[in-house]
């Protein structure tokens, strides 16, 4: 896991180019043939060469900076939850004497975007990084962990992956689903559906599995036509519910949503379709979004203390960076039912 040192002269020899060519590639000059640029960049990446780093960093001293990387194609600035997560990391890092470099990755499949993130690690501009919104097994994140960098991931479950530089924070989705179904069953609901989350992310399949287990536990029938594909955005909830209503299928009496944003979108589609919540359909969300208590009707949901979660994750990452903790770390965040106005007894 230890990263080897190499200088620009050795990079030039390995690439079969001059040292000045290596310099032009590093500084992104345009007068380098594409095939030469790709060859030099490949060797830089393979050997984790650290260009443009300060003498202190090259000497092995810490930058006292952590990275916060959000993988999100939408507008982060307008999302209250995303802003709270960012602020929580910055606040907690500051209390430990660390700075935070933040970056939004619009597309984890974009080669240039991924290369830019890798370079932040390879150039040692940060001592470690936190990733939010990643697919359960994101190749470039796994490569960073393999290369020995300190990496913390929100929402990941990869059996057998327990490297000492991997830190994971998960949600107790099984417990959350059990609480949701228990509550709906207490309101005499038996016909319950689900709008799933993004199945590429860990919470997508884990919430679906939790839903099935909870329905079986309370001996409630599972109807596959009421399990709808979705995501974790308001738009995905709106689209999933709109498509479902267009089929003119029989409605369940209640639905669980992958998160509160999905619930907001689904409830908007229901309203447009003339279906009342909770009069015609009871709805439960996940997360307790800042707007959930002010939504109409106020949304019943599973609350998560995101501030505490991000505080613990940030502190744990810093412990690993400072070598006060040298073991694989994973912790799970509890969820608690918050009953409001979007569910009714039948």
- Return the CATH class of the domain at 173-304: Alpha Beta
N/C terminus separation? 59 Å
- Specify Rg, calculated over alpha carbons: 23 Å
What is the assigned CATH homologous superfamily of the domain at 173-304?
A: Response regulator
Structure annotation, total helices: 12
Strand numbers in spatial order across the main sheet: 2-1-3-4-5-11
Question: Could you say what the CATH topology of the domain at 173-304 is called?
Answer: Rossmann fold
Number of strands: 12
CATH architecture label name of the domain at 173-304? 3-Layer(aba) Sandwich
What's the rounded overall pLDDT mean? 92
How are helices and strands ordered from N to C? HHHHEHEHEHEEHEHEHEHEEHEE
- Global shape: elongated
User: Spans of 5+ residues with little confidence (pLDDT < 50)?
Assistant: none
- Estimate the helix proportion, in percent: 40-55%
Structural class: alpha/beta
DSSP strand content: 15-25%
Largest sheet: 6 strands, parallel
InterPro entries: HTH_LacI, LacI/GalR-like_sensor, Lambda_DNA-bd_dom_sf, Peripla_BP_I
Pfam families: LacI (PF00356), Peripla_BP_3 (PF13377)
Keywords: DNA-binding, Transcription, Transcription regulation
Protein name: LacI family transcriptional regulator
């Amino acid at each position: 896991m230890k990263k080897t040192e190499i200088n620009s002269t050795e990079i030039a020899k390995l690439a079969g180019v001059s040292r000045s060519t290596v310099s032009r590639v590093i500084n992104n000059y345009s007068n380098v043939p594409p095939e030469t640029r790709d060859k030099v960049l490949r060797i830089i990446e393979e050997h984790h060469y650290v260009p443009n780093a300060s003498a202190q960093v090259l000497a092995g001293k810490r930058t006292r900076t952590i990275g916060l990387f959000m993988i999100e194609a939408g507008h982060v600035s307008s999302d209250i939850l995303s802003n709270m997560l960012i602020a929580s990391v910055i606040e907690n890092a500051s209390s430990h004497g660390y700075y935070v470099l933040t970056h939004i990755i619009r597309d984890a499949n974009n080669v240039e975007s991924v290369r830019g993130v890798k370079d932040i690690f390879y150039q040692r501009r940060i001592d470690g990084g936190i990733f939010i919104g990643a697919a359960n097994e994101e190749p470039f994140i796994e490569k960073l962990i393999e290369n020995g960098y300190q990496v913390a991931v929100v929402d990941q479950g990869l059996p057998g992956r327990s490297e000492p530089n991997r830190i994971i924070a998960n949600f107790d989705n099984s417990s959350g689903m059990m609480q949701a179904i228990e509550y709906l069953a207490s309101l005499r609901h038996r016909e319950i559906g689900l709008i799933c989350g993004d199945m590429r992310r860990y919470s997508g399949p884990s919430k679906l599995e939790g839903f099935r287990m909870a329905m079986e536990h309370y001996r409630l029938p599972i109807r596959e036509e009421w399990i709808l594909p979705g995501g974790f955005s308001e738009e995905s909830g709106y689209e999933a519910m709109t498509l479902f209503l267009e089929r003119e299928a029989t409605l369940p009496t209640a639905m669980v949503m992958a998160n509160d944003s999905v619930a907001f979108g689904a409830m908007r589609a229901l309203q447009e379709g003339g279906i009342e919540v909770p009069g015609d359909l009871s709805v439960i969300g996940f997360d307790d979004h800042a707007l959930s208590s002010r939504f109409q009707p106020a949304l019943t949901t599973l609350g998560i203390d995101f501030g505490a979660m991000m505080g613990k994750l940030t502190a744990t990452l810093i412990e690993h960076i400072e070598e006060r903790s040298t073991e694989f770390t994973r912790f799970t965040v509890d969820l608690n039912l918050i009953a409001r106005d979007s569910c009714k007894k039948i």
